[in-house]
Amino acid sequence: MDGAPGPAGGPARPGRAGPRPPFPRRAPGSRGRFAPEPKLGYVDEPLPPGGALADTALMRRPAAPPREALIVAILVNHPGLAATHQEELAHLDFVGRDTARALAAVVALAGEAETASEMRAALAEAGFADELAALDAQADLAALWTVRPDAAAADAEAALRQAVGLQRRAVALRRELAEAERALGEELTERNQARLAEILAELASLEGTEAAIEGFGLASGRGGESV
């Protein structure tokens, strides 16, 4: 085979005769010779939330517990309590979007409305007529004497305090649940599993608890009843 001329005075270098063939083109979507191999266990696009990932405290938004509606209903029918505890209520976390908006409105109107009718009129004027109608449609709330405007202020405040305490504990537990799930995902140990189970059990018990007060109704002349 003929070679290309070498340096001056040197032997010819071996090489190809004729022009170099064109470099082959890659098919669309194919990897080149030096392209990195795909990494196992990875995906090009993020996975949408679903399956086990969606069923975690970090991804799910739980439904609003009944006590959130209870707190709002007590404050609507007893505006004086909203004014008395305005600062505390302003920092209370709610899960439900509608109940959170209603609570914020009630707190903002605290001090401007002295009676239940005045508070309801102010809320309706502010665009919360639908939320008021939803509260009134809840038969469980209507059956609670602490919610009614004619309940003694002491009874209403006692129920409010207990409901607020339960709400704070529930919010704290959900934060602990998120941390426990994260810890378990990072390290699968019996200790992390036990902690997660403990939080879930307490949260389930708490979510099923209604604001109940022993001896409710004494101030309202309804001794011996409980809510």
Q: What's the total helix number? A: 10
Percent helix: 40-55%
**Span from first to last CA?**
104 Å
- Rg (CA only): 34 Å
Task: Write up this protein.
The chain has ten helices and no strands. The radius of gyration is 34 Å and the shape is elongated. The model is unreliable at 33-61, 211-219 and 223-227 (pLDDT under 50). The chain is mainly alpha-helical. It has a domain at 66-207.
Describe this structure in a few short sentences.
The chain has 227 residues and is mainly α. The chain contains ten helices and no strands.
Task: Give the SSE map.
Blueprint (H helix, E strand, L loop, with lengths): L50 H4 L11 H12 L1 H6 L1 H5 L6 H13 L6 H10 L3 H8 L2 H4 L10 H34 L3 H18 L20
Question: What labels describe this entry?
Answer:
disordered C terminus; 227 residues; mainly alpha; 50% helix; elongated
